[in-house]
Specification:
The chain is built from 14 helices and 3 strands. By secondary structure, the protein is mostly helical.
Length: 318
């Protein structure tokens, strides 16, 4: 579906707003300056004033990449503007050129020295940020419809019984940003996403029919969708019906690892990256155990939702 001029203007103004606000200088950027650029903490202000502009773009991008890699929360306002529309590459370049024409100044607050550091908006800042917003990725009409109905169900129910941590608009933006992902572009994988959303709607309808409080997953739909993305990438199910068996394998693996957290380390890739020595350091075993417990909870929720999806699709096919 084509973008309207109003939507394109809204994307442009959102980008200008994002780059115009003050940014806390991230610790990763500070560390990069200390290590690779070999400046001390009290020399960082001078580096911004005297050295930064003379560096090549690839070096600047390397230093500031954590600062301008958008988070899901950063992506949400753009996803709300786009809905199920998609920008062409040409439109992306036009918007970027228009932003650059504003000659914006980027301001970073460096808390350690209690100073504000300024630099021009470099092309590489804008390229990294925009290219990772998912503006050229697509969302099908059916996925948008499913998400709209799920969010509507949750917030209608919450008006009478439960407080919600996010506004309806915020929840929708985060959910849309979660599915604006290249993982879902293959038709067979896209069918898994659609089936999951059908199952989630059926699950929520059952909870409401039983006059139960909505489970936490209802108010953290974006986290559930991100977990589904990670699960599909890691375990590569070919259809929704493959998921329960794969989820059972994940649960058993986590349970085995939880038994040895305090002595033999762990096998989960997330934790291997978190603890580079591949062992649990003193005082960290509780954190590791909690990670496995969360993974088991997520896998059980996934199985439950898939069960509802299979039943709902079977019923619809009769």
């Amino acid at each position: 579906m084509q973008m309207t001029n109003e939507q394109i203007d809204a994307l442009f103004h959102q980008l200008v707003d994002d780059f115009s606000k003050h940014h806390p200088l991230m610790p990763q950027v500070v560390q990069e300056l200390l290590n690779r650029q070999q400046v001390t903490s009290d020399q960082i202000e001078g580096f911004f004033k005297e050295t930064l502009q003379s560096l090549e773009d690839w070096t600047i991008d390397l230093i500031f990449s954590p600062q301008f890699t958008p988070t899901l929360e950063d992506k949400a306002p753009y996803a709300n503007i786009l809905q199920n529309r998609t920008l062409s590459n040409e439109q992306c370049e036009q918007i970027k050129a228009k932003v650059l024409d504003k000659n914006l100044t980027i301001a970073f607050y460096f808390a350690e020295q209690d100073i504000t550091l300024k630099t021009d908006l470099h092309d590489c800042f804008l390229d990294r940020y925009v290219d990772r917003l998912g503006l050229t990725d697509s969302i099908s009409d059916s996925v948008l419809q499913h998400l709209t109905e799920i969010i509507k169900t949750v917030y209608q129910q919450s008006q009478t019984s439960q407080a919600t941590p996010l506004t309806q608009t915020e929840a929708m933006g985060l959910a849309l940003a979660s599915v604006r992902n290249k993982t879902w572009q293959k038709p067979e994988i896209h069918q898994i996403l659609e089936a999951y959303l059908i199952g989630l709607q059926a699950f929520l309808d059952d909870e409401i029919a039983q006059q139960s409080e909505l489970p936490p997953i209802a108010f953290n739909l974006h986290n559930a969708l991100l977990h589904l993305v990670d699960f599909v990438k890691t375990y590569r199910p070919e259809a929704i019906a493959d998921i329960p068996k794969l989820a059972d394998s994940l649960i058993k693996s986590c349970e085995r690892d939880m038994e040895t957290v305090g002595s033999q380390g762990f096998h989960d890739e997330y934790l291997k990256n978190l603890y580079a020595q591949n062992e649990v350091t003193t005082g960290k075993s509780d954190e590791v155990w909690q990670h496995y417990y969360t993974m088991i909870q997520q896998a059980n929720y996934l199985k439950h939702i898939v069960s509802h999806a299979i039943k709902a699709m079977a019923k619809a096919s009769v």
